[in-house]
Structures are given as C-alpha cells and as structure tokens.
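Technical note accompanying the year-one report. For the benefit of new consortium partners, we illustrate the data format agreed upon in the data management plan: each record pairs a sequence with a structure-token string. No post-processing was applied to the example shown here.
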Amino acid sequence: MPTNTFVWLKNNNKALLEDMEEAIKNIDSKILTIIKSDQGLHTNYKNAVSVPGIGPVTAAALICFTGNFTKFKNSKQLGSYCGVVPFERSSGMYRGKQRVSKKANKHLKSLLHMGALSIMTSNNNFGRYYAKKLKKVKIKWQQ
C-alpha cells in the first residue's frame, strides 16, 4: 500500500483513533483506581513499577495474571509461568537446546521482553552495562 494511502486512512479515521485513545485512558485510570483501593495491590504495584523496565501496564498485568503474586510458591515458578526461564531437554548423554515452556503466558512474556528491550536501549546504568558487555563479548542478543 502506498504511503499516501496510510495518510488518507489516518486522516479519515482521526476521530475514531481519538475515541479509542480516550477509551484506553479511561480504562487505564479505572485499573489504577482499583489497584489504589486495595492496600496489598497498591504496595505490590508500587514495588513492580519501581523495577526498571516495568511500567504501569506491565505491573498491572503481572498483578492480574499472578493473582497479586500469590499463585506461585517461588520465583522459579513465576519465571516459568512468564516464559523467561528456559528448560533443557536432555536424555542420558544427549543435551538438547534450551527452550521456553509452551505453557508460558505469552502476553506477560512479550510485556517483559519489551521492558527488557527498553532498558537495553536506554541511557541508564543497565543500558550502559549492556553496551559495555556487548563491546566485550561481541555477541548481540537477538531481538
């Protein structure tokens, strides 16, 4: 599709896009109101948002999908559920590739992945550390 077609679509659907953006803002504010109404939710939300790369959407999703972090006994179970812990398939002397469980929550995995990408490209301690390691090892993390 030519670029001017996209411009035409954007211009003709501007009111619809503005309505959708307003609806998203309203939903986000309602979610935040619900989180602030419960002390336990609010405490865990503030703790999650304090982690670099975790924003309001990711923090709210973590709280929702994990039942306010009560569904799992330990961090390994949570990491496995989020799809960030690889498992090795091995048998006897055979060592297979490490893969993430197919049962992982793909939505949470993508949110955490995007948070990690934002940290790697930022100009904070984590971004500088990643750039330093990238120069030293010369193997880039596949994005």
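Partners are asked to follow this layout when depositing records. Residues 14-37 form the longest helix (24 residues).
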